[in-house]
């Protein structure tokens, strides 16, 4: 690795540690640890949301997917972008008005029972662990490629860094690391996009015209069907992306870091603009990599295409730009895993320890200790699992996280806010049916069982044909919540009226 690259990496680590040191002085209470005391402004939280959402999978994975698969790679960009409209119009405002620290707080605003909080915490921890393993395994492989560092050392390094951010700086440090990372990511993406467009004389029509002959796929490069040949599989994956975002715990937790629903809405608008611009620019990253790096060299560096963006930066801007882009990718990984640790620790320390075991009577000191012990526990568990999962195809872990979020969390969030007859039994059956269906279907899908040796964990014929089960598990989650409600007799329409007022006005 060159001196320039080392300098960029050291600067990134130094900035994030300085932020943590600064944030540690402002993190004395449980509220400051979990939600930065609700003190972020709309634009700050918007950038932090964008930072949480634009993971390494977005920056590196989508650029590579567009470069290698053309239009089919752009499907991911469309799914991630449309997902934020669901968050903006359905979830953001009522979630902020009803919740406190976690998703379970929001549901408990209507159904204040321990078993619901326990199931919600179980769903959150399941999503966080699967998502975290995928991020850490991806981080290890990426840093191994970029820095030549051993996989295990890379995972341990990322794990230690994310633990430091959360342990000492809580949500304040995590948020500002996300903000810095989001700004750097947008700067890098815009620079590369302008350089790519310059190669096509700043004419988008010329770019699309030349891409018809720039890759081995010919004109098919600009048409759907190159990678995803099963329409149901494509529909299922898109459904998981579009609906899953509104149920991801580390995204939902961000709406509690602002003072009111109005600020929550403005933060989603800011995030949607940043995320929207980024995903549109992935066209230039992908097209540029396909035209000026070439699919052979991209696949040679990484079969999944994850090195497409850094390689393109090297071709267009030399060692300096490639080092900068690689350092930004590193910062991206650190920021996302820190957010995941925090959301997992909140579910355990606040929901299970604070509200169930201590019955909501834990002192401020006990809450802070529990949060920090939970952060260390979640980090150690994730690091250990990631070390053993090095050779596993982790793509299904991400799809599973989105699937569970869409199948277990989203139906309960929507029914809690909008369905008068919804009750405790419906909330529990909805979450459990969505969670278990997603887990079982993924376990028997082509991600786990494949006739091709080495393509999955087991060799054989999969029992379920879709690689992402959202097309089945999301309806099951909604049906489970509906049946649980209508088959039981519990009703509390007075409580629903109270929750409706709170959700729409923020009055406590």
Automatic annotation (TrEMBL):
<keyword id="KW-0472">Membrane</keyword>
<dbReference type="GO" id="GO:0015293">
    <property type="term" value="F:symporter activity"/>
</dbReference>
<dbReference type="InterPro" id="IPR038377">
    <property type="entry name" value="Na/Glc_symporter_sf"/>
</dbReference>
<dbReference type="GO" id="GO:0005886">
    <property type="term" value="C:plasma membrane"/>
</dbReference>
<feature type="transmembrane region" description="Helical">
    <location>
        <begin position="116"/>
        <end position="147"/>
    </location>
</feature>
<dbReference type="GO" id="GO:0006847">
    <property type="term" value="P:plasma membrane acetate transport"/>
</dbReference>
<feature type="transmembrane region" description="Helical">
    <location>
        <begin position="431"/>
        <end position="449"/>
    </location>
</feature>
<keyword id="KW-1133">Transmembrane helix</keyword>
<feature type="transmembrane region" description="Helical">
    <location>
        <begin position="182"/>
        <end position="202"/>
    </location>
</feature>
<dbReference type="Pfam" id="PF00474">
    <property type="entry name" value="SSF"/>
</dbReference>
<dbReference type="InterPro" id="IPR050277">
    <property type="entry name" value="Sodium:Solute_Symporter"/>
</dbReference>
<dbReference type="GO" id="GO:0015123">
    <property type="term" value="F:acetate transmembrane transporter activity"/>
</dbReference>
<feature type="transmembrane region" description="Helical">
    <location>
        <begin position="320"/>
        <end position="349"/>
    </location>
</feature>
<feature type="transmembrane region" description="Helical">
    <location>
        <begin position="45"/>
        <end position="68"/>
    </location>
</feature>
<keyword id="KW-0769">Symport</keyword>
<dbReference type="InterPro" id="IPR018212">
    <property type="entry name" value="Na/solute_symporter_CS"/>
</dbReference>
<feature type="transmembrane region" description="Helical">
    <location>
        <begin position="74"/>
        <end position="95"/>
    </location>
</feature>
<feature type="transmembrane region" description="Helical">
    <location>
        <begin position="268"/>
        <end position="293"/>
    </location>
</feature>
<feature type="transmembrane region" description="Helical">
    <location>
        <begin position="395"/>
        <end position="419"/>
    </location>
</feature>
<feature type="transmembrane region" description="Helical">
    <location>
        <begin position="6"/>
        <end position="24"/>
    </location>
</feature>
<feature type="transmembrane region" description="Helical">
    <location>
        <begin position="370"/>
        <end position="389"/>
    </location>
</feature>
<protein>
    <submittedName>
        <fullName>Cation/acetate symporter</fullName>
    </submittedName>
</protein>
<keyword id="KW-0813">Transport</keyword>
<keyword id="KW-0915">Sodium</keyword>
<keyword id="KW-0812">Transmembrane</keyword>
<keyword id="KW-1003">Cell membrane</keyword>
<keyword id="KW-0406">Ion transport</keyword>
<dbReference type="GO" id="GO:0006811">
    <property type="term" value="P:monoatomic ion transport"/>
</dbReference>
<feature type="transmembrane region" description="Helical">
    <location>
        <begin position="235"/>
        <end position="256"/>
    </location>
</feature>
<feature type="transmembrane region" description="Helical">
    <location>
        <begin position="469"/>
        <end position="487"/>
    </location>
</feature>
<dbReference type="InterPro" id="IPR001734">
    <property type="entry name" value="Na/solute_symporter"/>
</dbReference>
<comment type="similarity">
    <text>Belongs to the sodium:solute symporter (SSF) (TC 2.A.21) family.</text>
</comment>
<feature type="transmembrane region" description="Helical">
    <location>
        <begin position="153"/>
        <end position="170"/>
    </location>
</feature>
